[in-house]
């Protein structure tokens, strides 16, 4: 009885750990929860206030360290406005010369006092088409109108001046105090409370005009690009190994540790002796280079 209870406990712990591992993409975007980003945006009075909330340690949303100095990076916000659309790029300067876009909040006024909004993770940090938007708790097919949000009212108000953060690499506002980055195992439970029913992952883009305009200005870092591919490959190998070990552990638990019948292994060994292994011809290696690095787009303010 004790052995069965212990086995069930071990399987429960493994299942929980594997579920957490499965939630991880292995990309740097694991360290900036987009649900949390939308919650902070919703609770801000304007875009400057939103930038401050993103970079406040107590809010627990920002855990990015793109320049790998062990401290959380400062995220600057840049608005690429065009007509009735706004694209708020969340951008991290990784050196004096380069910056990397992390995500973009795309906003479009589709009618009088009707505004659509999505936050889209940059493909370098989240993979392709990682999009989160406000959700209607009663009807998932309804697109939520965010015109009532304070920062949205401010942006579409008469006094709004297009916001471009003045801060750059290692030049931050006086109130900002960098803090030590935490592991994903610590960060992931910390942002769980932001995963509420009124935010959802989607695969439909709401504002194609805003996205096309943003893509003309998207900032990309070649140094981060190289590090990103190396880190993602290591995580993928680690994840596949854990999945394989978990499958074996599950099978062992399913059999309940029962011993095989006597003679089973002997019978297999006799069959194996009668089979002569066939030699395979050597594999021919193909020539080819690695992935090319993207160009760095610099923007003048």
Q: Can you describe this structure?
A:
Mean pLDDT is 79; it is low at 11-22 and 257-301. The N and C termini lie far apart (70 Å). It is built from 9 helices and 6 strands; from the N terminus they run αααββββαβααβααα. Helix 1 runs antiparallel to helix 8. The protein is of the alpha+beta class. The chain has a domain at 27-231. It has helices at residues 2-23, 34-42, 47-54, 123-126, 150-155, 184-190, 208-215, 222-255, 264-273; strands spanning 76-82, 85-93, 99-111, 114-121, 131-134, 199-202. The radius of gyration is 25 Å and the shape is globular. It is 36% helix and 15% strand.
SSE map:
Blueprint: H1 2-23, H2 34-42, H3 47-54, E1 76-82, E2 85-93, E3 99-111, E4 114-121, H4 123-126, E5 131-134, H5 150-155, H6 184-190, E6 199-202, H7 208-215, H8 222-255, H9 264-273
Antiparallel strand pairs: 1-2, 2-3, 3-4, 4-5, 5-6
Helix pairs in contact: 1-8
**Count of extended strands:** 6
Give the % helix: 25-40%
Mean pLDDT: 79
> Strand order of the main beta sheet, please?
1-2-3-4-5-6
Low-confidence stretches: 11-22, 257-301
The helix/strand order is: HHHEEEEHEHHEHHH
The quaternary structure here is: single chain
How much is the radius of gyration in Å? 25 Å
Terminal residue distance: 70 Å
Largest sheet: 6 strands, antiparallel
Number of helices: 9
What portion of the residues fall into strands of 2 or more residues?
5-15%
Summarize the structure.
With 301 residues, the chain is an alpha+beta fold. Helix content is 36%, strand content 15%. The protein has a domain at 27-231.
């Amino acid at each position: 009885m004790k052995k069965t209870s212990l086995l069930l406990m071990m399987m429960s712990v493994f299942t929980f750990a594997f579920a957490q591992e499965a939630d991880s993409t292995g990309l740097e975007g694991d360290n900036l929860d987009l649900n949390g980003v939308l919650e902070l945006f919703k609770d801000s009075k304007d875009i400057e206030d939103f930038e401050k909330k993103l970079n406040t340690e107590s809010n627990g949303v920002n855990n990015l360290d793109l320049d790998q100095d062990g401290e959380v990076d400062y995220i600057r916000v840049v608005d690429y406005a065009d007509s009735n659309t706004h694209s708020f790029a969340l951008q991290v300067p990784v050196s004096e010369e380069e910056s990397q876009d992390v995500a973009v909040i795309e906003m479009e006024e589709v009618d009088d006092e009707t505004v659509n909004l999505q936050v889209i993770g940059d493909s370098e940090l989240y993979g392709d088409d990682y999009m989160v938007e406000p959700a209607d708790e009663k009807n998932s097919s309804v697109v939520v109108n965010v015109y009532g949000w304070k920062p949205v009212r401010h942006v579409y108000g008469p006094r709004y001046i297009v916001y471009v953060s003045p801060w750059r690499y290692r030049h931050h506002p006086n109130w900002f105090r960098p803090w030590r980055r935490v592991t994903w195992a610590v960060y992931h439970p910390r942002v769980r409370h932001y995963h509420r029913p009124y935010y959802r992952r989607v695969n439909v883009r709401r504002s194609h005009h805003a996205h096309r305009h943003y893509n003309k200005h998207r900032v990309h870092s070649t140094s981060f690009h190289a590090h990103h591919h190396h880190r993602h490959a290591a995580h993928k190998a680690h994840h596949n190994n854990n999945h394989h070990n978990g499958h074996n552990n599950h099978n062992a638990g399913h059999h309940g540790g029962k011993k095989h019948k006597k003679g089973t292994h002997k019978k297999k060994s006799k069959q194996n002796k009668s089979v002569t292994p066939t030699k395979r011809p050597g594999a021919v290696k193909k020539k080819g280079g690695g992935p090319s690095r993207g160009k760095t787009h610099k923007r003048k303010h």
